[in-house]
Design a protein that fits this description.
This protein is an alpha+beta fold. The protein has one helix at about 10-30; strands at about 1-5, 35-45, 50-55. The chain has 1 helix and 3 strands; from the N terminus they run βαββ. The protein starts with a strand and ends in a 22-residue tail after the last strand.
């Protein structure tokens, strides 16, 4: 599976939250014995995450799951 993280609207708070999500996914993958291979990581200027792309696979290099439905999750919330 390929995971792409980018913060949505919200400036520094969104970048910090995206960084926390990155760490959460990394710990989750490691706790399941999956490989978490960093392909791209860009830190925001004041901390947090600007963008990241990782490949998550089982120990044999296979995928760990599939996505059904839409093209992903958007964290933006309408006010």
């Amino acid at each position: 599976a390929i995971l792409e993280l980018t913060p949505g609207v919200g400036g520094q708070e969104a970048a910090l939250f995206a960084g926390e999500l990155y760490e959460m996914y990394e710990r989750f993958a490691e706790s399941h014995g999956w490989r978490f291979e960093l392909e791209h990581y860009s830190e925001a200027t004041a901390g947090g995450l600007q963008s990241a792309t990782v490949r998550i696979s089982d120990g044999d290099g296979g995928g760990v799951g599939t996505s059904s439905g839409g093209g992903g999750f958007e964290g933006d919330v309408a006010e």
